[in-house]
Structure formats: C-alpha cells, structure tokens
Amino acid sequence: MKVKLSSGYEIPIENHKVRIVQRTDLVPVTRRLEAIAEAGYNTFLLRTKDLFLDMLTDSGTNAMSDNQLAAMMVSDDAYAGCASFYKLADAVKDVLRFDHTMPVHQGRAAEHLLAKVFVKPGDTVLMNYHFTTTKAHFELAGAKVLEIYTDEMMKTESTHPFKGNLDLQRFKDCIKKFGADKIPFVRMEATTNLVGGQPFSLKNLKEVKEIASANGIMLVFDGSLLSENAYFIKMREPGYSGKTIQEIIWELMQYVDLFYLSARKSTSVRGGMICTNRKEYYDRLLDWLPVYEGFSTYGGMSTKEIEAMAVGLREMTDVNVAGAGPEFIEYFVKRMVESGLPAVTPPGGLAAHLDAKRFVSHVPVSGYQAGALAAAIYIASGVRCMERGTISNDRAPDGSDVYADLELARLALPRRVYTMSHIEYVVDRLTWLYKNRQLIGGLRFVQEPKVLRFFFGRLEALDKWDIKLADAFKADFGPNY
Ligand SMILES: *Cc1c(COP(=O)(O)O)cnc(C)c1O
What is the spatial distance between Cα 305 and Cα 410, in angstroms, rounded to a whole number? Predict the structure, then answer.
C-alpha cells in the first residue's frame, strides 16, 4: 500500500503489523573486516551472526502471514494422499487454473525434471533471461541456453516499463536458424531475477505464445515471481489498472503450457511445484518424480510447507501482498537515485540493484566489479547483498572468464521483513561508500568450483584494499559502527 502524506510526498506503508521479531546486531567494522576475509570475500559465505541486515536474497526469507503459520499446524503428515496436498491442488486450480500439480522440493528441482524429460543434447532452449540454476540444469542435459531479450534489458538507466520482454523478431529468427524440433520450449521468466527483477508485459507473453503455437513449441512459464510481474502489469501496462491481480494472473496463465515456480519467492515459503493442464506432460514428469523428489503428494516438501504454500498462493493475489516488495523497492531505488547512486532503473520486483560498472568504474572487469562492490558494502554497513555479475557466470570451456552483460550488486528486500528506517540506513552507508569508492579494489579467485562457482568460491582482495576502506570508515564513524 502507498499513502500520500499531507506534504504531497508519497511513501510505501505496511498494511500489516509485526508480531514476531528476530534480533539482529550491527557488529563493528573491525569485526566485519575479519568476517569478510573469513568468508573469502564471498557474501554467501558470511554467517548471519555477523550481519545487520541480510539483503542477500528474497528466497525463503520472506515473512509469512499468521494464516500461513496457522495452516502449518494442521498439516497432514502422510507419505501418500495427504490432505495438505489436495489443499495445494485446490489453490492451484483456483489461482492458476491448472488441473495437474506436482510438488517438488524447490524451483531447481522443477528445472531438473524439465531438463530430464524435455531437453535433449543438441537442443537450444530459448528464454527472455536465464536463472543460474535453470541454465545449469539445461546445459547439464546437453542443451544450449539462448537469451533473446530486447536491447532495452541491458540498459541500466531506463524508463522502459517491461525490460523483461522477449524479442519477438529474434524468436522467429531462432526458429528459422535452429528448427522448431531443436527447440524443446521457450521459457518466460516472470520478473526476471538476474537482470534487476524486470517484468514482461501481458502483450509480450501473448505474442510469444502466438509464435510458439504456430511452430509447435511449448511455452514454459517460470512463475517464481509471478505476483510481482502481475503487479507491474497492473501498474504499468495500458488497460490493466482496473484489473485485479487475480484477473491478471488468469489472463497470463491461459498462454502457458507448463508452469513451475520456486515457492521461496512470491508465496513466501520453501518449496516448489510444476503445474499444467496437459496430462501427457504431467505423466512424463511423474515417471521421474519419485526418483528425485518423492511421492506425488509431497514431492520432497514438508507437508507443513505445502499447507503454507496453499495459503501463500491465495494471499499473493491480494494487491497489497503482491505490491509489498515492489513498493518498498521503488522507494529504495528512488532514495538511491536522489542520493546520486548508480541504481538500476526502473525499480524491479525483488531487489534494488546498483550498477557496479558505474559504481567502481576504476576496477577492471577482470577484478570482478560486482563481487568487489558486494564485499565493500558489507564492510561499510554490515549489510549483506549479492554479486550478480561475472562471478555468477562459470568459466568457458577454455578456462577464460565469461564477462557478464551487467555487473550488479543486488540488495534484495525480503517481503515484509525490513522497514523504511532500514532502507534509510542502507542508503546512507552506500552514499558514504560511493564518496569513498576509489578505495575499493578488485578481487581474485583463490579457490574456485567448476559449477555455480559463486556459491562456494573464495577470493582475496587485491592490494589489501579492504583494510584501507575499513580505516577510512573508522576515521569517519568511529570504532563502534
Ligand atoms: C529462485 C528461482 C529459481 C530456483 O528456485 P530454488 O527454489 O532456489 O531452487 C528458479 N527461477 C527463478 C526465477 C527463481 O527466482
């Protein structure tokens, strides 16, 4: 919800009250300097005891509602045929209008099954943009992943409302080039996670579906951030301001052959699922479900989470729930821009993003700009964010780095967790850091996994820039912050 103050200034406001809290401590800069070194300058490897605000991700970290928590208490723990599953299947029928629902332990498990069943070596999977786990699974199945986004997506300063759109001409060109039989499906990711949480329009999805249908290509929808994309359609797409989130979701879903999601995002729980109206797809996936996930009525999920997911699916159709993330992110980005910080615009659906190429333009790309900025943000604030840049890409077969299109530091806002004063604190420390950005240097790998290296890779700070940064911070704020 947003309210206009008597001054005319508009602010986002919580339309819920907080009844359970978790303590967090701001450890002093000297400890933060030790902690980031212990973590190999990789924010994934920090421990939460050393964090003030955890803006690493919105995945599985959102605040659940009282009704979700209550539903968990009445879950039905049966291996097969559990009542909790049928509540989820009913919620899917009502909210998404799919007849077949398959729970899986989380989003990447859905991608694993999709890869196993639909993707063959030599295939090309087309998509508006990839997600890390998506790409890993489809490539492990022997396919190439090709992103066919529009030019607008890579502009970090933009007012385009739908940077997540798929480029229709490139889609047609790819079908000509590869042949429709080598394209198992086109994947549309709602509120594209890795490129700033940017949505696609309903019009774009409809046009993608028309081309896909005409060529016998299946349309797969990654709906992990579905309610946010629907919220942006309501706010930004001509003709939709009067529609409810539920009506927009129904309209989106009519173009979808196969739907999956990570329940860790929009539905604020921990799990995932695959849904479809095509019985033959369901049956083919079902063959593999017990091998990798579990029986069809729990699919690797706890029945408690299944209960909470059924409630979460229904709740996310409330415009105030769907908008809870985007409205605070809009405020966060607005405050960053007002403070002269190189934020990605327009604001997206899961996080505020800083353009590291502009923030630390003096650091060469080989020094991992986004990774260096993420480490520096932690030192200056105790806030953990995530690198979304070259470190998030694995190396090419010849061992060279694959430089990312965008180098972003992603400050995620878990839904309903942080408040406006938290945002003001972060913006203040980022502004200080921006003034002192010349102190930030590059990083170098010292230990590097081959697949998804960003999770466990360890790096070092070149020329000990981290110590100089911490000294400058202490000189300005004293030792206690
Ligand atoms: C998080 C996410 C996934 C992967 O889901 P997990 O639950 O983390 O395995 C896939 N796609 C998108 C768009 C996501 O945001």
Answer: 27
In terms of Cβ atoms closer than 10 Å to its own Cβ (0-12, 13-18, 19+), residue 48 is exposed
Instruction: Give how far Cα 84 sits from Cα of 71, 299, 309, 310, Å.
Output: 9, 12, 10, 8
User: Is the bond preceding 414 in cis, omega lying within 30 degrees of 0?
Assistant: no
Domains of the chain and any CATH numbers = 2-58+321-477 (3.90.1150.10), 66-318 (3.40.640.10)
Q: Is the CB of 106 under 6 A from ligand 1?
A: yes
Check if the beta carbon of residue 142 is closer than 8 Å to that of residue 195: no
For residue 3, give both structure tokens: 């309210």
| Threshold 0.90, pTM exceeds | yes
* Active-site entry in 32, 234, 265, 384: 265
Distance CA 45, CA 459 (A): 11
- Alpha-carbon dihedral of residues 131, 136, 137, 140, nearest 10 degrees? 160
Would you list the DSSP string of 96-146?
T--SEEEEESSHHHHHHHHHHHH--TT-EEEESS--HHHHHHHHHTT-EEE
- The single-letter DSSP state of residue 462 is G
Q: How far apart are CA 289 and CA 312, in angstroms?
A: 23
Nearest to 105 by CA among 302, 265, 307: 302
Cβ atoms 379, 28 nearer than 8 A: no
**224 Cα: distance to centroid of ligand 1 (angstroms):** 6
Amino acid letter, residue 184: P
Distance, in Å, from the CA atom of 385 to the CA atom of 404, rounded to the nearest integer, reads 18
Annotated catalytic residue, options 58, 123, 222, 466: 222
132 part of the active site: yes
Q: How far is the CA of 30 from the centre of ligand 1 (A)?
A: 35
Pairing mode, strands 408-412 and 386-388: antiparallel
Q: Look up residue 313 and give its two tokens.
A: 């699916």
Please report, in tens digits, the pLDDT of each residue of the chain (481 residues total).
999 999 999 999 999 999 999 999 999 999 999 999 999 999 999 999 999 999 999 999 999 999 999 999 999 999 999 999 999 999 999 999 999 999 999 999 999 999 999 999 999 999 999 998 999 999 999 999 999 999 999 898 999 999 999 999 999 999 999 999 999 999 999 999 888 899 999 999 999 999 999 999 999 999 999 999 999 999 999 999 999 999 999 999 999 999 999 999 999 999 999 999 999 999 999 999 999 999 999 999 999 999 999 999 999 999 999 999 999 999 999 999 999 999 999 999 999 999 999 999 999 999 999 999 999 999 999 999 999 999 999 999 999 999 998 899 999 999 999 999 999 999 999 999 999 999 999 999 999 999 899 999 999 999 999 999 999 999 999 999 9
Atom of ligand 1 nearest to the CA of 190: 13
